[in-house]
Amino acid sequence: MTELESRLPVVVAIPTKNEAENIAATVGSVIGHFEAVVVVDSDSTDDTRAIAESLGAQVVPYTWDGKYPKKKQWCLDNVHPDIPWLLFLDGDEVPTPELIDELREVFARQPVLPAAFDIPLLYWFAGRPLRRGYTVVKRSLLDRTRVSYPEVDDLGAPGMGEQEGHYQPRADGPVGQLKARIEHRDLDPVRTWFERHNRYSDWEAWLEHHPGAKEQVRGLKTRQGRIFQKVPFKPLLFFGYTYLARRGFLDGRAGFDYALALSFYRWQIGVKTRENVPS
After folding, report:
1. In this predicted model, what pLDDT tens digit does every residue of 42-79 receive, in sequence order?
2. For residues 252 and 250, what is the distance between their CA atoms, to the nearest angstrom?
3. Global pTM?
4. Residue closest to 136 by CA, chosen among 242, 15, 2, 31
5. Glycosyltransferase 2-like domain spans which residues (predicted)?
6. Residue 277 confidence class, pLDDT cut points 50, 70, 90
7. Residue 1 maps to a domain
8. Residue 2 within a domain
9. For residue 178, what are the domain limits?
């Protein structure tokens, strides 16, 4: 079997903006394993584009026009539309070797029945891997002919901009679950995590005052996400769930810091929501 024949029939789409610190690892992990690797870049001012191109990725510029479709749906519509299957990776994510092997098993079975696959993350926080605790699961592998990102009524919301919000794309068909993980290894300083989540909490708080958009988003959350939306005392619950119930304490200090950071994120949402309640 030649190298070309052994490539997975999948295009990897990597949405980026200023990911020079991480992009080499991401592109290097997928070049040669997939049919195409495309970095979709939003006007980076660092060396993201040059690094990606030097490693063999195709670079496509993207500028958001303030409307729908947002960036991921734009990728589904425009990035190698001749290849039905698309794998989304953030600019600081790499598929583990186990995941690439599992994908080979998936595509060895024809036809592939699921319309999409949910993939768990192996998350890094403050430079350390988190093997326990709260596990993020993303619907990252999509058959673009059967999956789309809905147009949620949140264009007036702060915090997200060109990105789709924290919800899953809608699949017209069954959704599979893969066992192997995407490794989310962000090499940027931990302050960037807090900067991002400060923006994300703006969006979450905005939803609390816009019930129509909130209801749209709720229908696109995972079952776990829908449950967490309804419970009281979210900061305390997130800490207890992540650190104790999911045994985040086994990850040492990093597990404690991550559980506390998630709790702080939920607290931010609550404070911002209460701030905007009319007196």
Report:
1. 999 999 999 999 999 999 999 999 999 999 999 999 99
2. 5
3. 0.91
4. 242
5. 12-111
6. low
7. no
8. no
9. 8-275
